[in-house]
Design brief:
Layout lengths: L1 E4 H4 L27 E7 L5 E7 L4 H15 L3 E6 L11 E9 L2 E2 L1 H9 L1 H4 L4 E7 L7 H9 L2 H6 L7 E6 L1 E2 L6 H14 L4 E2 L3 H16 L1
Parallel strand pairs: 3-4, 3-5, 5-7, 7-8
Antiparallel strand pairs: 1-2, 2-4, 5-6, 9-10
The structure holds flavin mononucleotide.
């Protein structure tokens, strides 16, 4: 498994805070730390090859992607885990798991663009979507519906790509990884919503989704 630091990854990323949208936040470039890790890995087996691609701001979504890939790999699938910025061609993949962190009640714009850019191939192969968000810090019916609504922008942007499954997971909140302005905004917002700093990823739930949903529909 390989990792890239954010410094290596970001090419001239301005820490631009664009406006208070949705959850009260911003445009890309909200992360601060240099040590954010973007997991990438290859699991080589015989047969068809699958891609687990993700967009992430502070790194935690890459851990969700890798967990899904680990399950697929253990079951004999050949899987590449990649940040979307490092994928230029999806045509060699027999199926794609595509996921993103959430900002302002949506996948990140880059993730939506990725699906649009590759829609000609993605509409012809099995695809599943996932997201990581803080709405699911408390797993209530209302929050589950809210989290599901975060898929709407990508479903609308590329309607011909019809995911065979979509799943929302709780993500992580680490203020040390956010720039000062975003940290202030998020702190105030999260305090009001009663969401503490922490890692809320449920790896058992992620593994179980990979095992019971991703593998049957993709492979
Ligand atoms: C600027 C910003 C905006 C966010 N907006 C939302 C949102 O609208 N809804 C939500 O449920 N979570 C929101 N989140 C929470 C992230 O989606 C969550 O922390 C995710 O796990 C981050 O993943 P990452 O570490 O891969 O970047 C936001 C986080 C940040 C930093």
């Amino acid at each position: 498994m390989e990792t890239m630091t954010r410094r290596q990854f970001v090419v001239g990323s301005a820490a631009a805070v664009g406006g208070l949208i949705g959850m009260g936040v911003v445009q890309p470039g909200v992360a601060l730390a240099d040590d954010i890790q973007w997991i990438e890995s290859d699991c080589r087996k015989e047969g068809k090859k699958y891609l687990v691609a993700y967009e992430s701001n502070c790194g935690s979504t890459s851990g969700v992607a890798q967990t899904i890939a680990d399950v697929m790999c253990r079951q004999g699938a050949s899987v590449d885990v990649r940040h979307i910025k490092n994928v230029s061609d999806v045509s060699t993949y027999a199926g794609v798991v595509m996921g993103s962190a959430v900002k302002s009640a949506s996948w990140y714009p880059g993730a939506i663009r990725f699906v649009k850019d590759h829609q000609d191939h993605l509409r012809q192969i099995p695809v599943v979507y996932f997201l990581a968000c803080l709405a699911l810090y408390k797993d209530t019916q209302e929050n589950r519906e809210l989290a599901q609504s975060y898929f709407n922008p990508v479903l609308k942007a590329a309607p011909e790509v019809k995911p065979k499954a979509v799943e929302a997971f709780a993500g992580a909140l680490d203020y040390s990884k956010l720039n000062m302005v975003v940290r202030m905004i998020m702190k105030s917002k999260m305090e009001k919503q009663g969401v503490p700093e922490g890692d809320f990823r449920d790896f058992q739930k992620i593994e179980s989704w990979a095992q019971n949903t991703v593998l049957p529909v993709l492979c």
